[in-house]
Amino acid sequence: MSKIIEGAAIPDSKLARAITEYIRDNETDLLFNHSSRVYHFGAMAGLHRGLTFDRELLYAGAMFHDIGLMPAHGSKDERFEVDGAHAARDFLRSHGIAEDDAYTVWTAIALHTTPGVPQHMHPVVALVTAGVEMDVLGLTYDQYSDAEREAVVSAFPRTPAFKEDIIQAFYDGIRHRPGTTFGNVKADVIADKEPHFHRGNFCSVIRCSHWHG
Q1: In 3-state terms, what secondary structure has residue 170?
Q2: How far apart are CA 141 and CA 182, in angstroms?
């Protein structure tokens, strides 16, 4: 069994342990394992890219990024990303983390479903999205070695039908607030002017990714 490389390991700190305990208590196993993989793949992406990043802040961003899908942390009118960002910022503030750092994590979570922007921002913001795009969409699958992928999935397994399970988890978390899904207005404009335009589909990308399950 391959071992996760040291630079991408979960920080051995009081804050990281508190984050793990909180997310374990407040999320499903599906989302907990997914979020853990997001952290590891994000940290590995940082190492691959030669970035300097705070592993505690990255861990906070990764582990809280989907908590807004949970009923106890979801609101009626906010995007689930914003609910998760609020939850993470409140948690970090309660543990004495500086406001600038808490805001960095807030931004990472709020933007993790906004492609094309996070990679130009603070490393923590960029790497949370990198981890999500790897674990859910497999966009950078070939940028990780077989050993790296095996180590992460061995530590935090994917369910046999992960693709469908994660789509269902998203649906369950947002179906009561469809108005918050309004998003990429550029696609709407092109579709309005070009009747044959076919917009990209998040679920189709997941189902066609390199990942099995």
Answers
A1: helix
A2: 29
pLDDT score of 68 more than 90? yes
CA 65 distance to own-chain centroid: 5
Backbone angles phi, psi at 138, to 5 degrees: 65, 25
Domain positions in the chain: 6-207
Please state, in angstroms and rounded to a whole number, the distance separating the CA atoms of residues 84 and 61. Answer: 9
Q: Sign (positive/negative) of CA torsion 163, 200, 79, 108?
A: positive
Which CATH code for domain 6-207?
Answer: 1.10.3210
Q: What is the DSSP string of 83-133?
A: HHHHHHHHHHHHTT--HHHHHHHHHHHHTTT-TTSGGGS-HHHHHHHHHHI
Amino acid in position 192: D
Q: What is the pLDDT of residues 139-183, one digit of tens each?
A: 999 999 999 999 999 999 999 999 999 999 999 999 999 888 877
Question: What contacts 82, CB < 8 A, 6 or more positions away?
Answer: 68, 110
Please answer whether residues 176 and 69 qualify as being in contact, where contact means their C-beta atoms are separated by less than 8 angstroms. Answer: no
Q: What is the pLDDT of residues 89-136, one digit of tens each?
A: 999 999 999 999 999 999 999 999 999 999 999 999 999 999 999 999
